[in-house]
Design brief:
Its EC number is 3.7.1.3. With 453 residues, the chain is α/β, with parallel strands linked by helices. The protein contains 15 helices and 17 strands.
Length: 453
């Protein structure tokens, strides 16, 4: 495993620094016995039993697609059943008299969710879905003028973000080719350099209204330096927001301290809340008392103590809850609450400690298998631990979709992206070191079988 420069190591926190030193001096082995040894030392190993795994060929799968949809926690059913029972037994009175009254159900997220994303409890809320929330937040934070109207995003942002940018600038009367500025990768490189992001922000300068980038690129798994990029955007007078779909529950975030204006994320990837489930939002406290900041208002964002007086004039709840619009879908929030409570038990530091070790072990396994087969694997996710999280995107030179199909048929659930990339997310909550070893053996068998045909 290659050592990082002192400069790159100092860019991450003290905790992460010690962890990375430990990982770098660890001598990995591509053996079943070594993988079992790592599992025996893993404090989170027991959490595998907290999740329900699909079965293939009568065995639980090796699940690498938590970056798309997380597995279902077993405790989720109890949270959902509680709401269903209250609905059955109390009907409308469940809003006020259930064990977790529905009218303030979302407030139970404030403290545990604030710990996950590094915020004050008043800065986070849950509502809607991810792209809906980004659109609503752009009402407040994308306020173009004749001279300051441009948006900076990354090249090949997730398609939903691209459609959002295009429709937003059209709505404000601008052309996407004029208003949207993409930061591109250099020729022959898979990832975007930080210096190129900073240079583009400085170049656009006084014309820049908003920087809005995915905190973790969905395709390559690159983690951006959110603190540095946010400071650069503010320096030229722009607002800065982040799409944290692949970052929340996966990356150590300090949204408040980084002075980020706003952010939103989905809950169904690393936070395992179920398909298409509710989104989380962050609005920095510096904006909470700005009465000139526009927003699309609705009943559920109105003063909580006066909400049922049915007043005509909107009086927003102080904090992020004041951006809520509609009565919240409690049945959707229940699985999310089950998940954030699990995160609160564990803590992000423990998650990230395992994340970095198991990702490094997967990287090692891939390199070892690469030595034993004719094909070659190019990991396009950054090698620097400060620039990656629970994902390795692997370019399979000399291989096609048939290898992906082989993996799927043999109990490895992974993700295929054209032209020949598989995304592997060893989520620390429910993947094991044994899984990494067994995956390597299945991968090798698939390549060798193809060679024999």
């Amino acid at each position: 495993m290659s050592c990082q420069s002192p400069k790159s190591l100092l860019s991450i926190g003290h905790f992460s620094l010690l962890l990375q030193i430990k990982i770098q001096i660890m001598t990995f082995e591509n053996t079943f016995e070594f993988a079992k040894k790592l599992d025996s030392q893993d404090q989170l190993h027991k959490y595998q039993d907290e999740f329900i795994f699909p079965q293939v060929n009568g065995k639980k799968v090796i699940y690498f697609t938590g970056n798309s949809l997380g597995l279902q926690p077993k405790r989720t059913k109890a949270y959902v059943d509680e709401v269903m029972d209250d609905w059955a037994n109390l009907a409308v009175e469940g809003h006020f008299y259930s064990e977790k009254p529905w009218w303030d159900y979302h407030e139970r997220f404030a403290i545990p969710l604030s710990k996950i994303v590094g915020a004050l409890p008043s800065e986070v809320t849950v509502m809607n879905t991810l792209t809906v929330n980004l659109h609503l937040l752009m009402v407040s934070f994308y306020r173009p003028t004749k001279t300051r109207y441009k948006i900076i995003c990354e090249e090949k942002a997730f398609p939903s973000d691209q459609y959002m940018f295009q429709s937003q600038v059209h709505f404000h009367g601008y052309k996407p080719e004029d208003a949207i500025v993409e930061i591109k990768r250099r020729n022959g490189e898979h990832n975007i350099r930080l210096e190129d992001v900073l240079a583009k922000i400085e170049e656009v300068g006084d014309e820049l209204a908003l920087v809005l980038i995915g905190g973790v690129n969905y395709y390559t798994g690159q983690v951006f330096d959110m603190k540095t990029i946010t400071a650069a955007g503010h320096k030229v007078g722009a607002k800065v927001g982040w799409d944290l779909a692949h970052a929340a529950g996966n990356v150590k975030l300090e949204l408040h301290d980084w002075n980020i204006d706003f952010a939103a994320w989905c809950s169904y990837k690393y936070m395992n809340s179920g398909p298409g489930n509710a989104s989380g939002c962050f609005i920095h406290e510096k904006h909470h008392n700005d009465n000139d900041l526009p927003r699309f208002a609705g009943w559920w964002g109105h003063n909580k103590e006066r909400r049922f007086k049915m007043e005509q004039t909107f009086d927003p709840v102080h904090g992020a809850d004041g951006w809520q619009i509609s009565n919240l879908p409690v049945l959707s929030l229940a699985p999310y609450l089950a998940s954030v409570n699990m995160f609160d038990e564990i803590g992000m530091d423990a998650l990230i400690a395992k994340r970095d070790t198991i990702t490094s072990y997967l990287e090692f396994i891939l390199h070892e298998i690469d030595k034993e087969v004719d094909s070659s694997f190019e990991i396009i996710t950054p090698a620097n631990p400060a620039e990656r999280a629970s994902q390795l995107s692997v370019l399979l030179h000399g291989e096609g979709r048939s290898l992906f199909d082989y993996l799927m048929k043999n109990g490895v659930i992974t993700d295929w992206r054209e032209p020949n990339v598989i995304r592997l997310a060893p989520v620390p909550l429910y993947t094991s070191f044994e899984d990494m070893y067994i995956f390597g053996q299945i991968l090798k068998a698939g390549i060798l079988e193809k060679a024999r045909l």
